[in-house]
Amino acid sequence: MLEKIESLHEEQTKAVEAGGKYIARHKERGKLTARERIELLVDEGSAFLELMPLAGWGSDFAVGASMVTGIGVVEGVECMIVANDPTVKGGALNPWSLRKSFRAAEIAEKNFLPSINLTESGGADLPTQKDIFIPGGRGFRDLTRASARKQPTISVVFGNSTAGGAYVPGMSDYVIMVKERAKVFLAGPPLVKMATGEETDDESLGGAEMHSRISGSSDFLAVDELDAIRQARRVVARLNWRKQGTSPDPTSYAEPDLDPEELLDLIPTDLKEPFDPREAILRIVDGTGPNNAVAFDEFKPLYGSSLCVGWANLHGREIGILANARGVLMSEEAQKAAQFIQLANQKDTPLLFLHNTTGYMVGTEYEQGGIIKHGALMINAVSNSKVPHLTVIMGASYGAGNYGMNGRAYDPRFLFTWPSAKSAVMGPQQLAGVLEIVARESAEKKGEVFDAEGFKGIKEMVEGMVEEQSLPYFLSGMVYDDGVIDPRDTRTVLGICLSVIDNQPIEGAMNFGVFRL
Predict the structure, then answer these.
(1) How far out from the chain centre does Cα 450 lie?
(2) What is the dihedral angle through the alpha carbons of 236, 242, 247, 249, rounded to the nearest 10 degrees?
(3) What is the CATH number of the domain that holds 349?
(4) How distant is the alpha carbon of residue 240 from its chain centre?
(5) Given CA atoms 151, 73, 105, 31 in this order, what sign does their dihedral have?
């Protein structure tokens, strides 16, 4: 696991250094990098939970997708922060930037977070405009809808904000522009010349002073980047923002009973080998103490034992946990999960799903026993549950087990993966084996001899492809999670997420769909 974590750090460094030689050029101009701006913006000593740092991994674009996103505390207020990285193609947005920004807006909406855009972007990456232009309008829609929900949006413009990028400050509630640096216009001087014949300059067309004194598109004129960040903090301080949920006393919980460092030893190298999820749970949740007599209260421990469910506290907040014990989900596990999810909704308690599943059980005995309807029962409960869901993929997450355990398609508030995680329709060997059986049967039906030796190369290619596409970096690159994390950071990451969820009251589902019993 340590080797996997070291590899993770190397991949994350690619995002930090994505600008390459342009980082030095950017600093020579007296400008701060995206991450430096964020570090100055958030409260000193507070954590910044970076989200989707590997977006675009494995694509033709830089790791990180020319953007830094995450949750930070500004003047005591948790905010969604989105910062363009101007050292990567001038902060131009590519298809993965869109996915990343859309997910950030979704997280902000569901958790009712103010948003701060640290803007410096040349707009769309023109060679890929066909993948950006049509869906890109959603970003402006999200900004205006956030404002309509009384969810503040703030834009701090540090440099160019051109074409579609100009609408980010144009549609924000509060706008700060840096003097002699910010350039906000729908079309720059060359395009204006081509379109209308008018000759003009950057400052007259879209400079910070012009927008502050003439157009009114800027609310605050900053003398430099530091002043802009100071003013952004003052805007947040004046939002009169209060959490609407019920936050616990931060001194009312104990650290885990077992050492989180030992999480590194839990996951077997071979994901087919089961491990006891209780060992992970007791290293993540609050330990026993004056306000917590038992760290984990397991529910129905003798029934459906391949799925471990129960109640615990994490940083003082009560949560329900569903964790795969032996990988496979059978009818008993599905029914137990559905009941437990209903109970969590009945008492308005968030749910945490810990994945290590190969999917629902198959075979004649299980089909006749109703595995389809029982699996549907569990998925129905997950789909219609209204309490916040958090998901961590620790090991395998295959087949419909990914759905039943609240995978990405089921809109968890946050989803993270460990470096040991794998997600796919099924395991590589199983998938390649199925293809071989189908090919063999097809040949026999045609009266042909199946070339087992010739198919061997195809089988190996398929296994390799599925293995690569099920790895966490690949999936994180496609923005199918909110980040790959060190297992030892799981408690802290989940604690931040639960704090964010407290921004609004939790209300469980009042009813569910028809359960096929």
Answers:
(1) 45
(2) 70
(3) 3.90.226.10
(4) 28
(5) positive
Indicate the number of domains in the chain. 3
- Digit-by-digit pLDDT tens for the chain (517 residues) are 999 999 999 999 999 999 999 999 999 999 999 999 999 999 999 999 999 999 999 999 999 999 999 999 999 999 999 999 999 999 999 999 999 999 999 999 999 999 999 999 988 887 888 888 888 889 999 999 999 999 999 999 999 988 777 889 999 999 999 999 999 988 778 778 888 888 888 888 899 999 999 999 999 999 999 999 999 999 999 999 999 887 777 667 899 999 999 999 988 878 778 889 999 999 999 999 777 788 999 999 999 999 999 999 999 999 999 999 878 899 999 999 999 999 999 999 999 999 999 889 889 998 999 999 999 999 999 999 999 999 999 999 988 999 999 999 999 999 999 999 988 877 777 777 778 888 888 888 888 888 888 888 887 887 777 777 778 999 999 999 999 999 999 999 999 999 999 999 999 998 888 887 7
- Its pTM surpasses 0.90: yes
Distances (CA, A) of 331 to 335, 336, 338, 368, 377: 6, 9, 11, 11, 10
User: Do 495 and 449 share a domain, yes or no?
Assistant: no
Please indicate, yes or no, whether residues 23 and 42 belong to a single structural domain of this protein: yes
Based on the number of CB atoms within 10 Å of its own CB, is 186 exposed (0-12), middle (13-18) or buried (19 or more)? middle
For 78, the domain range is: 2-237
